[in-house]
Amino acid sequence: MSQPASTRRRQFMATSVLSGLAVAAPTAGAAPGSMRRQGGDVLVAYFSRSGNTRVIAGQIQRAQAATLFEIQPARPYPEDYLETVEQARRERDGDVRTALMATVPDLARYRTIYLGFPIWGETAPPVIRAFLAAHDVKGKTIIPFITHGGYGPGNSLAVVAAHARGARVHDQGLVMEADQERRTMERVNQWLSGLGST
């Protein structure tokens, strides 16, 4: 039995939209440190734990026809959010140099680097410091794009400027609240508290 034309049209539209998203978005679960190359001199390098920064990175990459590089630590952070927060705090307070899964093999070809990361403990994650320390960014323009859970960028821009030796750090980076993970945890905890003992 054939479907009405309106149903077929809706299914086609939904499939088209979902297919477009699958192609356009950076691949979740892609190989750490993997690159999606374009021919220009713009690089989008990002670190993302929950996916918020990854979405923005993909949007910038498409708009700028840039090469996309996912920054990953050699030893992944824990899956548990609170464990990750604690590990990041220890790394920050101990000034730990995080090992990277991979580096950009031909950074010299890029003049502009969009650098994306979430705020952890009111600063840039240790893996971002490690990324900047591992690459010669002298003479390049770095444009930060930052996600945070409601407390702003903290001292992250100063940290990027201090570790990006010889680079020009753009003063009009994107700073955006994207706290879904923390807000979700708080809401679930409130709900559980409201249930009382069942």
UniProtKB/TrEMBL annotation:
Molecular function in Gene Ontology: FMN binding
Pfam families: Flavodoxin_4 (PF12682)
Domain of life: Bacteria
Record domain Flavodoxin-like: where: 42-196
Keywords per UniProt: Flavoprotein, FMN, Signal
Stretch forming the signal peptide: 1-30
Gene3D superfamilies hit by this protein: 3.40.50.360
Name of the protein in its database record: Flavodoxin-like domain-containing protein
